[in-house]
Every structure is written in structure tokens, then in C-alpha cells.
Amino acid sequence: MSAAFEIAAAATGVKGNLGAVAYGLAAIGPGVGIGLVFGHSIEAMARQPEAMPIIRQNMFLGFALCEVLALLGLVVPFIFSA
Question: What pLDDT is stored for residue 42 in this prediction?
Fold first, then answer.
């Protein structure tokens, strides 16, 4: 009986840290995406300075979409923890 109790206690302890692990993994994708968005937009502005307003607008749109994914990764563990 005590072995089953220890396994249940260990599973409960892991459940508390699972949200932090999930957010850590969820932050990898948007972090890479934001780096790619800004890197490629700077490269595009350097190649075609006359298209700078359009590139900047698309850069901020891409940044906002990547950041929404990071915020979604933060909220989802709280939703499914209940």
C-alpha cells in the first residue's frame, strides 16, 4: 500500500511543475519566430530602403502574431489545470 501512495504523491508533485515546463517549451517557438521576423525584416530594409514602411508594418504584425502564441502558451496551462 505504501508504494502506491508514494507513486500517487510523486504524480501530484509533478503536476504542479508541469505548467512551468509546458510554458518553457511553448516559449521556444515564439522566441525563434520573433528572431526570424526581426532578422529578415532588417535584412529586407537594408536591401530595399524605399519599401521600409511596408516592411515595418509587416514586421510589427508578425511580431504581434508570434507574441500571441507566447501568451497563449502562458494561459493554456492555467486553463487545463482545473
Answer: 96
Taking a C-beta distance cutoff of 8 angstroms, is the pair 58, 41 a contact?
yes
The Cα 31–Cα 33 span in angstroms is: 5
38, pLDDT greater than 90: yes
Burial class (CB in 10 A: 0-12, 13-18, 19+), 34: middle
Whole-number pLDDT of residue 12: 56
